[in-house]
């Protein structure tokens, strides 16, 4: 089954999970870049308030075609308890998401807040069949914690031959 792993990462944590997931289950990686180009301070001063308001960023790629995939995994950092503006925009940029099986993941310094629920709802509103969500802390990643729960969700979808 073809898997597409879409993620936004500013500090590398979400990219780490996406790359580890790809190594475990295969699939194509799509890195979403926020064209605002935040500095570390800018993520907190400008990015976090935008995340709280549910704003959309200008992103690259502007269109993400997943019509050729069976499963979509979408990952975001947690900013102020919410998905990033880049991920909000990425969900809007999806082409062919209707009816696709999906899983969601996020990375945070501590608590995911309402991030997983928000991304799940946005994907569901676009017609995706979201089958699970997993949160990782930065500490989990630094300690080399396995991403088994996320990889197992994708493997389960592959076994079910969800298309």
UniProtKB/TrEMBL annotation:
Residues 3-158 form the Flavodoxin-like domain. One of its GO terms (molecular function) is electron transfer activity. Signal peptide: none annotated. It comes from the Archaea. Pfam families: Flavodoxin_4. PANTHER family: EXPORTED PROTEIN-RELATED, FLAVODOXIN-LIKE DOMAIN-CONTAINING PROTEIN. This is Flavodoxin.
